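[Solved] Which block belongs to which protein?

Original post:
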Amino acid sequence: MNNRLPPGLSKHVKSGLASKQNVKLPTLRQPKAKLSRAQGDDMLLRRALELQQADRLPEAEELCHRVLARTPEHPMALYILGTLGLGFDDKLSIEYFARAVNQAPLNAYFHFSLGDAYLMVGEHALAIRYLQRACDLKPDFVEALCTLGRAHLEFDQADCAISSYEKALRLNSDYPYVRTGLANTLASIGRMNEATVHLKEAIERRLDLPAAYSAFAGTRRFTEEPPELGSILRELSNSNLEPVSAQRLHHAAGKMLNDLQRYSQAMDHFQNAKKAADYQFDLEFYRRRVDSMIDFFRLEMVAPKVNYGDPSDVPVFVLGMPRSGTSLTEQICASHPDVNGAGELTKLMRMASAIGFTPQSADALHRSLALMTIEQSRMLSQEYLSHLRKKAPTALRIIDKRPHNFELIGLIAVLLPNARIIHCRRDAIDTCLSCFISNLDRGHSYTSDLKTIGLYYREYDRLMRHWEAIFPGRIFESRYEDLVSDQEGHSRRLIDYLGLAWDEACLGFFNNDKSVRTISRWQVRQPIYKSSVKRWKNYGDRIQPLIDALGDLAEV
């Protein structure tokens, strides 16, 4: 994310300068007399907006602070400062947006940006509160309605999400993102046919076209060539495609061709999608990071602190490499009446970042944990549990299914000593290939090429073996192949590990009406099938760089 105004709002900010809190600013002229303070503030903020649009962010920030020095708590200055921090310091952005809202409580755009910022950091209840207020203040605010729909969906309120999107559709049937948003919501709860209708209409109208094709490709497994494949290939012949559009279109074509068992052609498109995405990943840096975690989290450091945190047995962490069966495992467990599947939560990662665990360094986290007192540990664990309880106040177990929490098992052990940890494993080649051919975002930049993902997998495996060594018996290993070969037996072992009585509903997990927001949403609506085991063999020599990179972890 860059430091620009939220999509579709730049024109509103400029108009907002003339309508802060129902107070019309004077029209600017070229007066000979000295400007009033209000006129001077207005001129500085207009200039700040111009600098922001020109990507001259420090200069824009400086002008906003000049206005605040002259007029403390100026709402538009606070608002622009909030937009400048997005993606770099989201917490500070939220503080600025909240101050702007306090100063101008009838400004719908300020409420929208505060709600959107809360959504970015995973605070869904607060996001919904402010986005709903924006919609109440401006009932025709289509952007806010669509963002409210996304917030409801991520908070597992699919019916409310559908209502928001349908209202937006009635207001503006040509808004680019409303049909894809509505379709994604319908697909998340298994209503694939309805989702397809909206996606085809978006395609026909050429609205949010690459995203519509990408979403359409994920609504089913194709057994015969759809006409949309030819349309995608024609779109790809346009040499002026933006990289993100090319990435989505190549991935959609690859997905369809993979379904049709035209594997060599599919691989061509998957590789072209990666080239368009141009992901960069520093493998040596990540190796040093894993070294740092292994060196720090030794038994002698962890053992004295394992009872520091909250003793709650409500949290369940389902983690592992993406595409290793985490969504399927969550869906099976969440089909139990006493279990809630909360999806991929970012709260633990955000808490870790707040105490120093960042992509750049883990040293601050290590210092924080080394010096952590019982009181500090309890405070952090209760903050996490409070966030978890918002998802399901009465559930006996709540699942946090963020695969990359495998990096935070040491922190989990300190803060939540009685939490269950389910580690999903799958054949290494199948896992890596599935990651490569899936449309994962830039946060998974290690999927940039087959060799890099194989080497990354080795680092993940090295870290997981360390956790298993220092926390023996604490982590339940759930192998995808075992689940496929013995669904009931393995499902019973999962529920037993959760400390719950068996419930037959876990065998019909594909009938669970809970929303699924990952790229596995089609698969988890199907009964378990075995065709995903050793799928990598379909690609033959095309994936040899992956097999070579995995080395002894590749079961050929």
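(Second protein starts here: sequence line, then its structure tokens.)
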Amino acid sequence: MSNRINKSSRAAKAKQSAVSRGRVEQALAAGDIAGAASLAEAALAAGQMDPMFLNLAAWRNEEIGNFPEAYRLLQRALVISPGDITILGGIAAVLRKDDRPNEAIEVIDDVVAKAPGYAAAWLERGYILDALRDEEAAAESYGRAAALDPGMAPALGKLADRAAKRGETDAAQAYARRAFATHPLEPAATFAIATMAIEARDGAAAERRLRALLDHPLDGDDRTRALTLLGDALDKQDRTAEAFAAWEAAQRNFADRYRARLGPVDGRPSHRAFIDRIAAQVAATTAPPRRYPDTDLPQAAAAHVFLLGYPRSGTTLVENVLASAPGVAALEERPTLVDTDEIVLANDGSMPDLDTLGPAFVDRLRAGYWRRVTDMAGDVTGKTFVDMNPFNGFKLPMIARLFPDARIVVMRRDPRDIALSCFRINFTPSTATYSFSDLAETARHYDALTGLVELCRERFPLAFHDLRYDRLVSDFEPTVRALAAFVGIKWTDDFMTFDRTAQSRGVRTASATQVRRGLFDGRGQWRRYEAQLAPALPILEPWVKRFGFEG
């Protein structure tokens, strides 16, 4: 009897599960993903384990930023349905959103190897490669996705956006038209058209596009980008108060989205506190740093330059100027020192006594750096290598020990223009760029990092060269001649073609549009926003005076 009851119970549960799955599939067919997820969660709560239900519940957690729970649910689904490419694709997406792109690319590469005709996997692969800052490979993946599914609007939109950033107007418009044919408000395609309109100084046309997009549900990074571009469109119309309000809304959205992961919560220090901790350690050192023996590293460049300063100070422009010369290899904001960071720099900014590191250990760190550079930039032996990262100022204590003969170029720009520019730009999310979601914190962060760089200049016997943005854009040739002499390369007229260099190399930073246009004079933009910058100005004023930007 009991056996018959158990069989009857299992049959009833199977029927219930079948009914629930049917309702979920109906909701999905109607495009109601949220409704399908609610049904799936109810079914799971009733004990009905089904890969589809787990996948939808994971999607719900992914949407609210609970990536660990989404990952857990997808792993449970994978146990039930091993090798399911939709589940594996979901896992790759969650890993990407949880800032684990290196793990994500391994998963998605496995998916496209197993199912090369799965367009959605190629789309996700493009997203992951974008997160890894490999734009060429990302574009190839978006192209594969669009070839497999010609109506895949997100892939077409991404291709349009990339083309717009590179100044390829005809291609951008063609991709955008195809995206809009399927999805009239495809976000990336809208961003492409708006970007080109802003570049053409048609702020009104860009505003119309962006407001139409913002009138519909738009979440996450897409909303941040739309609000940022709206501010730019209003700025082009000289509607400064409205423009600044749009940038403020963009930064609020960015902060809301990334507060739990990047903000100073649960005892996690802010990036400014991280810098302050390093500065305190540098200030406490009294003896000159230990100089480790020079070694002959097989992959090392003949000459070595670190180009730093602060975001939006002009580092991307200068990197492309230097990269235009024969015999120069350059990398743009790549994690060349990440292996060293993981060994000697804790998350709170604390470091061991760097002068107690053994020579063999230092050699391993140096060799690891040059291996990583070779992987990213190719063979740099016999060349001048330029490592550009505006945030590398807080790594100067390590640079002084590992590369005491390197040349340090520090970009200088009016701090008020820097603060405004950082506040109105979309950056790749990080603990550092999270600081830019608040204007006063932007100024305090600038104060902390600039103070640390100045302290390192006093304490470390490194070769420093200040390069002023205002002089670069107003007196280009003499300024670049002095830079080239410091770096140790001869003057060449190729320096003048940096815009073509930027076009051919591609620019990954927020400066892409300006650098591609040639010599862009961005001085004094802060004056139109002086009232809105009021919270930041007193913090920046000492540096304005110290660097001579008072006029």
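Accepted answer:
You had them paired correctly. Confirming on the second one: The chain has two domains: 150-262, 271-546.
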